């Protein structure tokens, strides 16, 4: 029976609506019955569960530690921060609240980390002059150590750090992040594959304008904390990165000259610039410069070979590196990954090395090699560029 006041059109509309609703309900039920999930396809890299990751203490919460190292842990897949070591407890606790870290140490009770089972690895992010002391103390506390570059101020300090690692049965690495940076990895892949032929010449220039009024620059201009000058700081990028590309080749001689204004008051304790040159066993030449007098910031690597060349500018920065290939035709830019991944990649690689108790990709011995070369550069510069056999 038709309800009073309801037309045939109204009834059709109601019935159509009911039909649509029924169809939608049926479709939802069918969807719910079939959307049971799919198996994991391929072999994706999955993060290790938080509770199974290697646990790290960060020693030093300066601008580099806060701006680069800590964010690297946020992106890491096999590592997590469990402790902060700082001379500023308020800053440490503030950062702890932000990143979920609840264990705090100062430099006065640093050795207490030996009794902390929630620390497996220690990352030393202190000024160069403090690297040896805190690395050795952390190793004696039974922790694996990744130390920022340069490894230390002197050859003897590096040797003592390596000896402490061996005595403790722990791994010691130097934080040469460029070995984990996608643009530099791409360059090394091209070079190792012989695509541009044997390397004949490498040019590396790195520097910036040092500002003594800015705290991160101020300590670099003091001998005690900075290590000795620009080569210990920005210049080590050019040296280490160049040697990274020359697989199996070794330097046989070195020479260098100072290149900075001697009357500049910034350089009362450390040199402000150096021009250096290495002769390699293969006959290749590696030359470069390091300076606290360059503006703007310079980060340049040029690899010249007998079938082509690679140019990188910027070459070793945190955020924006560029690789251009030259092979006779128009230059072509080589696309690579995000440079930011270098920090997480480096941290996770060390976590893997520590877990297996096997050497890291950039071990203490590499850091010692570079400090030996830098020390030889300064000896040569003190002798007006004398060529020194290695």
UniProtKB/TrEMBL annotation:
Keywords: Oxidoreductase
Domain Gfo/Idh/MocA-like oxidoreductase N-terminal: from-to ranges: 54-176
Domain of life, source organism: Bacteria
SUPFAM superfamilies referenced in this protein's UniProt entry, alphabetically: Glyceraldehyde-3-phosphate dehydrogenase-like, C-terminal domain, NAD(P)-binding Rossmann-fold domains
InterPro entries per UniProt: Gfo/Idh/MocA-like_OxRdtase_N (IPR000683), Gfo/Idh/MocA_oxidrdct_glycsds (IPR050463), GFO_IDH_MocA-like_dom (IPR055170), Glc-Fru_OxRdtase_bac (IPR008354), NAD(P)-bd_dom_sf (IPR036291), TAT_signal (IPR006311)
Domain named GFO/IDH/MocA-like oxidoreductase: residues: 186-297
One family name in Pfam for this protein: GFO_IDH_MocA_C3
GO MF annotation: an example: oxidoreductase activity
Keyword Oxidoreductase tagged: yes
Name of this protein: Gfo/Idh/MocA family oxidoreductase
Species: Qipengyuania algicida
């Amino acid at each position: 029976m038709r309800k009073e006041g309801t037309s045939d059109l109204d009834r059709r509309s109601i019935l159509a609506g009911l039909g649509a609703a029924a169809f939608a309900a049926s479709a939802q039920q069918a969807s719910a019955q079939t959307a049971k999930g799919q198996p994991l396809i391929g072999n994706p890299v999955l993060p290790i569960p938080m509770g199974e990751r290697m646990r790290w203490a960060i020693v030093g919460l300066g601008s580099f530690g806060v701006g680069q190292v800590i964010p690297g842990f946020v992106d890491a897949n096999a590592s997590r921060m469990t402790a902060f070591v700082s001379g500023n407890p308020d800053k440490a606790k503030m950062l702890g609240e932000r990143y979920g870290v609840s264990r705090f140490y100062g430099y006065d009770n640093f050795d207490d980390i030996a009794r902390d089972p929630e620390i497996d690895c220690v990352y030393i992010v202190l000024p160069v002059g403090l690297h040896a002391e805190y690395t050795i103390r952390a190793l004696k506390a039974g922790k694996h150590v990744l130390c920022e570059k340069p490894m230390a101020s002197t050859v003897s300090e590096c040797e003592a750090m390596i000896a402490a690692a061996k005595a403790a049965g722990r791994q010691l690495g130097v934080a040469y992040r460029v070995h984990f940076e996608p643009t530099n990895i791409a360059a090394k892949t091209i070079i190792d594959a012989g695509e541009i032929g044997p390397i004949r010449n490498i040019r590396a220039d790195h520097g910036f304008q040092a500002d003594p009024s800015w705290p991160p620059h101020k300590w670099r201009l003091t001998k005690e904390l900075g290590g000795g000058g620009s080569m210990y700081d920005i210049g080590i990028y050019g040296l280490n990165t160049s040697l990274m590309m020359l697989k199996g080749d070794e330097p046989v001689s070195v020479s260098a000259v100072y290149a900075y204004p001697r009357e500049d008051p910034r350089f009362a304790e450390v040199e402000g610039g150096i021009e250096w040159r290495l002769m390699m066993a293969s006959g290749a030449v590696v030359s470069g410069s390091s300076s606290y007098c360059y503006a703007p910031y310079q980060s340049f690597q040029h690899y010249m070979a007998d079938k082509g060349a690679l140019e990188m500018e910027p070459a070793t920065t945190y955020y924006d590196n560029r690789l251009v290939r030259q092979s006779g035709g128009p230059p072509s830019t080589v696309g690579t990954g995000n440079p930011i991944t270098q920090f997480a990649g480096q941290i996770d690689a060390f976590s893997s090395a520590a877990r297996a108790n096997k050497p890291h990709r950039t071990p203490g011995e590499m850091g010692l090699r570079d400090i030996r070369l830098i020390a030889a550069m300064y000896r040569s510069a003190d002798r007006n560029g004398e060529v020194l056999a290695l």
